[in-house]
## 1
Amino acid sequence: MTCRRGLGYAVGLADPDREKQVDFPRIQGFGQVDDVPRPVFSLITETTFVGETEPHHHDKAQLMCVISGVLTMRAAGGLWTVPPHCAMWIPGDVSHAGRVAGHIKILNLYIDAHLAASLDQDCGILFVPPFLRELILRFDGEALPAAMGREREARLIAVLLDELATATLEPIHLSMPNDRRLLRLTEAMIEHPDQRFTIDEWGARVGASNRTLSRLFQRETGMSFVRWRQQLHIGLALQRLGEGQSVTNIAGDLGYDSVSAFISMFKRMLGTTPARYFEELATGIPEGNSRRTLARGEAVGRDAAEAEAAPNIIPLKKRPA
């Protein structure tokens, strides 16, 4: 598929010969995001379909806040799962495509490139607290700019940028490989996350040895096979937790033999239990954890330097007792 600009998205359905144009909300009189003469504006997308949007890009930076539904994004050579109540940060001119399965409602925020220059130039996932969500809604793209007034708009933009700069990034990123054998393997794991094949069993299916796959995983994703699969499960689990699914059902759907085994993996990766994850996000970073913020080149916590050095997996380490 080709990468293009614009506010509309062509969506591939189950039948590859059929395509349907999904008209996402537009600001009257403007066909593309970059044509809108406002430094910051927001739009709400609500639609129902199953498929993947065409890759596209725009000069403006974008924050995609998932209000409800399940969204998976491909951008910057990686796969990003976006749970409800969270958002994906996409810097300007980064090609991205989204996959949706069913009904979804998204609050989109667009920011001029010069205003977004102080924010991270890499994609990331962040939790959206109620205050930030309401602040984004103040920039309704359908409202006339004069209704807000330039001085008030400038003050609100300053607050918005400050809130975004201090937002912490969540470790829900999967680097996707280029090697065709590894790509077949990872795509199969994404499609069937409950499959618990060993790396030897996967190797037999894609025509590569254990040693070759282990080397390729480390070289192309920066992770081991086991870590990549755990990272996949974390992203899928957070999506489903955000939808209100039970921990028991999630553990079963991801192929775990017991709920306790799933909880143990989750806590080892994120430093807290599935039941408490979103509650702790709403009240701040759990004590002892360290995460990068959306401010360019900054991080939170004592392991900030480690987080910056390893962007594929943001380390969440407990402080020594």
Note: The chain has a mean pLDDT of 79.
## 2
Amino acid sequence: MINLERFLANLRVRLEERISPNMMRVIRPFMTVQFVIFMLLGIVNTAVSVGTATLLDILHNAFLAPDNPLRLIAEHSRSNFIFGYIVSIITSFFLNCHFTFHQRPTLKKFLKFPISYIPNFIFQYLMVFIFTALNLNSTLAYICAAILGTPLTFAAMKLMVFSRRKSTT
């Protein structure tokens, strides 16, 4: 079995031989076991979001008649997606508290947590906007935005929500 810490340490050593110290300072925080756990939890959170929205779609289609006004409202507002996203953010908070940052969940952190997603959302939206403005494949835009936005979300969470610094007030 591979020792992840040893693998990442060896990778850092090899990269330090090939790239500038300034670039290493930028990528070093993302070459940690903590970041790998964050990425794995991101897969879980995506499954929770998609699974919740899909389950709601199935229930929605099974129990609401095609002529029911509630069906039209729910389809138009994409409420199933929004609810799935909210469930995944809540799940993400508790999983990241426990597995990634090893901190107890608090109400203050819980309220700050969704705010840490804002820079990622803006970044991803701009990427999709640029890709589509250039008439590039929108699916490729979504994938690139998600991959490139992950380090931004990790940094925002680490600094805004799970920082271990004590306040001076």
Note: The chain has a mean pLDDT of 82.
## 3
Amino acid sequence: MAKTMEELMEIIEKIPNEPAKVGEFILPELMALGIAHEVRNDDIVFAGTGLPMVGIMTANFTNAPNATLIYESGICDGKTMHVPMSVCDQRAANQSSVLGGLVDTFGYYLQQGFVTLGFLGGAAIDMYGGVNVTSIGDYYKPSHRFTGSGGNSDIGTLAHRVAYIILQEKRRFLERNDYTTTPGWWCWDYKADGTKEWKPKKEVWKGTAYANNGPTGVVTNMGVYRFDDNGIIYLETHHPGVSVEQVKENCGFNLNVSKVKGETPKPTYRELFVLREFVDPELIFLPAKTAYPADIQAIIDK
């Protein structure tokens, strides 16, 4: 017989908080938990549809129970038990503190500087953390036109910290983007005489409230990345089964791998239990479930 939510809640603390073995989890679960680990307990988080929602909801159950989640549709601080299908899914509004709209999320929470962490995706990212979701090639005659910024540029510049989740390919990890929708740690400084200079954003935006806002992490299907003091991306960890050389082969620039700490930490059994049984049991965003080891399944079935 299937267990009730209350019965499952009582099991969480009984599940060992020790790393799972390779083969006992799938890559999307590792990526979702990589997102969860970006969340601090006092964060106000602006999340979009997909794995960012999965990761942040997992963080609410594990490492960041007091973090506040805001959805673009206007839902603030919802206590959703299962992941919504989108930011407009009314399940996200369960026990929410505020049920507003776009004016509230962008005009109040974001522009007033309350959002401490934003999660975004992108078609391409450059070595400075700038993201392109606009077009490939010449802007006026592009080889491919994407859907555009949406809230990407707003969130990416106004949130105190930004983390990206992107599928890594050589054509998507670039030295410089064809078009920058959301600037990273470097951007153009446009002069009064019509010239421009590529400079650190902290210099260009000096004196503004946004000079120190920017990307702090990137989670891909190959590893986790950070940015150094000069605003340049570097590899922090590579996922289990992925070598540093494979990561470098899928970068369009000379990636700094001198600071690699090793493999990305494997998910714990407790994290996987929360992710599978509470956050996305319907497999809305996770493609599949992997069987638990016999001893873990025995705890669940008891």
Note: Residues 62 and 271 are 7 Å apart (CA to CA).
